Amino acid sequence: MWKPSLQFRLFVGITLGIVITTGVFSFLSTMTVRQNTERTLQERVVLTQMAAAHLGNTLQQSLKQLAQGPSAAPAATGQTSQSSAEFLATTLHTLPIRPAYVLLTDARGKVLLTAPDNPALDGADISSIAPIRKAMYSATSVVSDVLQDVTGSRPVVYLVVQIDAPGVTGRMMAIAVVDLARTNIADSLGPVGTGGTGYAVVVDSAGAVLASTKPLAPFNTGVHSRRFETLIASQSTASGTCHGCHETLAGEVTRTNDLMVFAPLDSPFRWGVMIAQSEDELMAPLRELQRRMALAAVVLFAAALPVSWIVLRRLLRPLQSLKDSSRMIAQGDLDSLIPRMGSDEISELSQGLEEMRRRLKLSRRELQQRIERRTHELAALVRASQTLTSTLGLAELLDRIIATAVDTVEEADSGVLFLHDAGSGYLIPQAAVGYRWDSLSRVRLAPNEGVVGSVYSTGRPIIRDTETEVDFMFGTVSAENRRALLDARRGRPYLSLVGVPLEIKGATIGTLILGSFSEHAAFPAEEVQFISAFAAMAATMIEHHRLTGEAGQAKSLREMDRAKTEFLSSISHELRTPLTSIMISADSLLAAGGGKDNDPRTKLLQNIRRNSERLNKLVGEILDISRLQTGAMKLNVEPVLLSEAIRESVETVRPMAEAKRLTLTSPGPDGLLVSADRGRLVQVLINLLANAINFTPPGGAVSIALKADRVYASIAVRDTGVGIPEDEQAKIFERFYRSPKMRVKGGMGLGLSIAKALVELHGGRITVKSSPGNGSEFSFTMPLATEESHEGTNH
Q1: CATH code for the domain of 774
Q2: Which of 337, 428, 597, 664 can bridge 657 by disulfide, Cβ–Cβ 3.0-4.6 Å?
Q3: 274 with 261: CB under 8 angstroms?
Q4: Distance CA 754, CA 366 (A)
Q5: Residue 100 and residue 182: Cα distance in Å, rounded?
């Protein structure tokens, strides 16, 4: 399978980079052209709005000048006043819109005076002309759309203003008539830069062309007239491109591709200005910029490819040589030197690779030495484990551990094994090599005392490589222990010392100390790792020996407990037979004696009967405990009406409650069915009620409460008794437990234990809530009866 070379992959990567860069460059240039296009269009919009504003201002000034009026009105038709004539002459020549002629009419539209003088219009009624009629009735200034002149011979625009004249009743009208054939209103747009192909057009409210800077067919509606009419009516500015045909003044039809912007004049003038320019001319600079950018990108791309290929070949040639050298190193050749190449980063790379080769060669030599050492240590550990795994007593095991440690670690010539004594809290020496035992056995070190205590308390090895360091730690030992230790090592100073913890499952059980009287820094870090591993193995051996002993003790305890259970079961059966006979005999004697209460023999028989029942109950409890312990207890599980079981248990203990004047309350029938052994459920309730009655003082109350969810029914027995201390609540369910703080007559402390076992045997759970002086609440759960439990089941 073909695998591309590094040079090829880099070349492809660089090519992709150039392509991406070129694409980004093209995208940015396109965005720039688009932004400039939008900016140009916005400039055209502003230019058109300025032209419309300039034309609007011209019309406004013309209307304002017309509105000034003459200082005196003509006396009558055909008569002139000097003031009116001067006003009309001045207006004709100075009005910004440059009218063809100017008129004065009375309020009814009858011509009073014209300038220049036009006898044909003197006294003429021109009120039928739409803008004049509108000005007459609306009292507002009017600028008309394109209309025919009064004579009907030429297109004109009327500017009509109502004026006041001194000495005249009513108002007159000053009218300026602009001849569109002689006056180009487009000249009033101000300076409009439209290039060689652009032009400006003024249209009226019907979209008809009033004037244009380009020869067009005037005074007619065109393809855009309806659009212009709508924009003027809504006072909206719009822009767009026209791809249509337009007729010139000479009648020629030309195909255009113009960018057009339209802006209406401000109210009240219902005219508009449209400026158009060839899109090709307007966008030519931007398109030229875009073309040059594209050409630059292509040139850059074409030049970058061969240059990158050449540069890559030059750069990768020494890299290929370094790759061959690295392959030799990977194959294990660490003896061949790597030559220095060039003087740039590749040279630094070759030097680095040569340094790596040299260090790898050194590391391999060190690793071989370390492997040999580790192999020796592992072999020593295997020998030590074989020595320690034989069956030994604890003392012999500890002696063999310390002897094996000193023999295995060549640098060590003495050692001590300390174990922590839980009773005294001290670290006590258990075995030693190179010490005088009669002196060493007196040492009792506390945690944090000396090297031994520090290793035990921190759980980390401690190394002391010089006599000074050892003596410093030795100074933290108490005076009595210091004397014993000095005497045990015969006054010899330690030159090196190492202590490691004996740990098992994260718990430290002691400290292993190895020392050298002859060598400084005798225990390097690698040696300490081996000693720690040996200490871990030794701790496992010690713990195994301890667990083996505990397992033997546990087996003996289990045998004793089994024998006790069998004895209790046997003696309970043996006691029940004579008890039954005594109870039957007492009942027979009571029946034969007539049951006289004042007879001493009757009282004696009743006492015998009552104590026999109590003893029979105790025997029954012992038998129940025995069955529960051995798993011989069988349950006859069936649906049980809970209210009936509660009623039966309440009636059983009611005499006890009445004897102590206690209020005993229970819930009424509820229809709850539980899956239980009826007799054992009643037994649980009686045990809990009897316990509550026993520990409730006279005058108190005992009650039963019920609640249920979808799976379990919960029964709570509450009392107002003395309560149970928190530290005893976990013990009250233990067999034969009786609180030392609360003594009651009778009972063996089995009732709550039996109740708990029976509830759990049913699959329920029993809990207690109590505090001294606030009474107690024992709650237990029983599973609700299901369809499957209706048939009854033996457990």
Answers
A1: 3.30.565.10
A2: 664
A3: yes
A4: 71
A5: 8
Q: Indicate whether 354 belongs to any domain.
A: no
Residues near 227 by beta carbon (within 8 Å), at least 6 away in sequence: 207, 238, 262
What range does the domain containing 79 cover?
47-279
Which of 769, 675, 688, 660 is CA-nearest to residue 724?
A: 769
Residues 298-317 as b/e (b if ≥16 CB within 10 A, e otherwise) read eeeeeebeeebbeebeebbe
Q: Which of 587, 604, 633 is the C-terminal boundary of a domain?
A: 633
For residue 115, list its beta bridge partners.
Answer: 102
The band of 190, judged by pLDDT with boundaries at 50, 70 and 90, is: low
Give the pLDDT mean for 321-338.
77
The secondary structure of 148-159 as a DSSP string is E-TTSSSEEEEE
**Does position 572 have pLDDT exceeding 60, yes or no?**
no
Q: Based on the fold, state whether residues 620 and 643 are members of the same structural domain.
A: no
Cα separation, 291 vs 539, whole angstroms: 86
Q: What is the DSSP letter of 790?
A: G
- The model's confidence at residue 17, banded by pLDDT at 50, 70 and 90, is confident
Rounded Cα–Cα distance for residues 611 and 617 (Å): 10
**What's the CA gap between 784 and 673, in Å, rounded?**
6
**Mean pLDDT value across the chain:** 80
- Confidence check: pLDDT of 9 > 50: yes
Q: List, as one string, the DSSP characters of 559-607.
A: HHHHHHHHHHHHHHHHHHHHHHHHHHHHHHHHHHTTT-TT-HHHHHHHH
pLDDT of residue 573 exceeding 60: no
3-state helix, strand, coil in the chain (%, to 5): 50, 20, 30
Q: How far apart are CA 462 and CA 124, in angstroms?
A: 131
Average pLDDT over residues 289-307: 78
**Contact predicate 634/795, CB 8 Å:** yes
Residues in CB range of 789: below 8 A, 6 or more apart: 637, 638, 639, 675, 783
- In our burial notation (b when 16+ CB lie closer than 10 A, e otherwise), range 202-230 reads bbbbebbbbbbbeebebbeebebbebbbe
pLDDT (0 to 100) of residue 250: 47
Do 593 and 733 lie in one domain? The reply is: no
Per-residue pLDDT tens digits for 397-431:
888 888 888 888 888 889 999 999 988 999 999 99
pTM: 0.39
Residue 569 near residue 625, CB atoms below 8 Å: no
So what's the pLDDT on residue 77?
A: 44
User: Are 764 and 782 in contact, with CB atoms under 8 Å apart?
Assistant: yes
Q: Residues 6 or more apart from 327 whose CB is under 8 A from it?
A: none
Domain final residue, candidates 279, 313, 342: 279
For residues 111 and 254, state if they share a domain. yes
Strand partners, 636: 794
User: Does 231 reside within a domain?
Assistant: yes
Lowest mean pLDDT among 50-59, 153-162, 247-256: 247-256
Range with the largest mean pLDDT of 222-226, 285-289, 443-447: 443-447
